[in-house]
Amino acid sequence: MSASLSEAFLARARRAMEDHGIDGWLLFDLEGRNRVAAEILGLPEGTSRRHFVLLPREGEPVALSHRIERQSWEGWPHAHREYVGWEEMEGELASMLAHCDWIAMEISERDAVPFVDYVPAGVVGLVESFDVRVVSSADLVARAYATWGETGLRHHRRAAADLARIARQAFDEAADAVRSGSPLSERKLADRVLDLMGDAGLTGGGVIVGGGPNTALPHYEPPEEGSRVLSRGEVLLVDLWGRAVGEPDAVFADQTWMGVLDEELPEGFGEAWDAVAAARDGAVELLSERFGQDPPVTGAEVDRRAREVLFERGYGEAVLHRTGHAMDRVNHGFGPNLDSIETRDERPLVPGIGFSIEPGVYLNGRWGIRSEINIHLGEDGPEVSPPEPQRRPWRLEG
After folding, report:
1. Is the pLDDT of residue 342 over 80?
2. Whole-angstrom Cα distance, residue 252 to residue 242?
3. Which uninterrupted H or E stretch holds 320?
4. What is the largest CA-CA distance in the chain?
5. For the sheet containing 235-244, what is the strand order?
6. Angle 383-251-50 (CA atoms, 0-180°, nearest 5)?
7. What's the fold here for domain 149-395?
8. Can you say whether residue 59 is alpha, beta or left, with left for phi > 0 and alpha for psi between -120 and 50 degrees?
9. Residue 370 confidence (pLDDT)
10. Number of alpha carbons in the 13 Å side-chain half-sphere of residue 14
11. What span, in angstroms and rounded, lies between the C-alpha atoms of 271 and 258?
12. pTM for this one?
């Protein structure tokens, strides 16, 4: 178990703890409720009893688990303590934390970043009863776990190229069906996309195919029966995501593409597309402008820049979601989101992490527009994938 506790991971965590003056990072979980701990420790379902893992700034990691869970910890390469009763557990935990003043855990003040707010208040109270101050691990999660690495970046690039190709193929097949007089349904096209992703060696994937007014529903999923037929004149949205199969360190790619199954765009569609594309590109420009500066730009700042473009162009009431989400080995990953409205993600965007940029406007009952690209912050600045984002909506030809 626990492939994530590599020496490279521990080194990144220790550097982050050193920078923040933190003595250790305490992972707590029960039944997989703490997604951060579950992913890091390689126990996605958690365990049926409470467990703790202390990653000290100096010294060897140590786990504390219930004795009946011994099988779950086979192969754990570091120090390991066990307990049976709650008094024994608290005594062992107090001993583990005896030399710590400041400990990071998965909490977030006032739930500002709910994606790292997983530790119950009672557990925080227990830890602080040992004269230890608990602070948020949000930045440690981003810097130590959410980084892509060279392997993750390589697989992401490949997945991004495959998704861009598949999205274009999906539109072309929908267009051919319209021209033939036998248009496809949303569900049939979605299933076709999933088949193409499987053929490309992508796993963990999903797809949103929406037509007409369904494109104005950001999380729309075509039903198995009775989904909309993609007829001439329909706006078509294809949002698809996946990662390389059989590669534990592979990072997801996630893209959204827009098209119109007609030679002409619907009234107002072109202006709205221009606004969305400008918001997307403005976010990338800010990342480039601020790269390498101290302090680094935050996810909230990038979100505000993109939203300003949409509001200035008159689409404020049609903006329904944040500008982007973190991405790593999980599609909605554990690093900073580009978000100042749904949450308050003021975590810095540091080299090594990645995320989506996907501003959108949604006119209920008419259509919605979203353009989604991905960013990896390398040592030389932001890398955009796919390298050629969509510049204009696809249209029916001939």
Report:
1. yes
2. 5
3. none
4. 76
5. 202-211, 235-244, 253-260, 394-395
6. 130
7. Creatine Amidinohydrolase (3.90.230)
8. left
9. 98
10. 14
11. 14
12. 0.93
> 2 pLDDT exceeds 50?
no
Other beta carbons within 10 Å of 40: 24
What whole-number distance in Å separates Cα of residue 194 and Cα of residue 189?
Answer: 9
For the domain made up of 7-145, the CATH class stated in words is alpha beta
Give the pLDDT confidence score for residue 363 in this predicted structure. 97
Q: What is the DSSP string of 233-266?
A: T-EEEEEEEEEETT-TTPPPEEEEEEEESSSSPP
Which H or E run includes 295? Answer: none
Question: What is the C-alpha to C-alpha distance for residues 327 and 349, in angstroms, rounded to an integer?
Answer: 12
**pLDDT, tens digit, for every residue of 11-49?**
999 999 999 999 999 999 999 999 999 999 999 889 999
Which tens digits make up the pLDDT trace of 190-245? Answer: 999 999 999 999 999 899 999 999 999 999 999 999 999 999 999 999 999 999 99
Using an 8 Å Cβ cutoff, are 382 and 355 in contact? no
Residue ranges of the domains in the chain? Answer: 7-145, 149-395
Mean pLDDT of the chain: 96
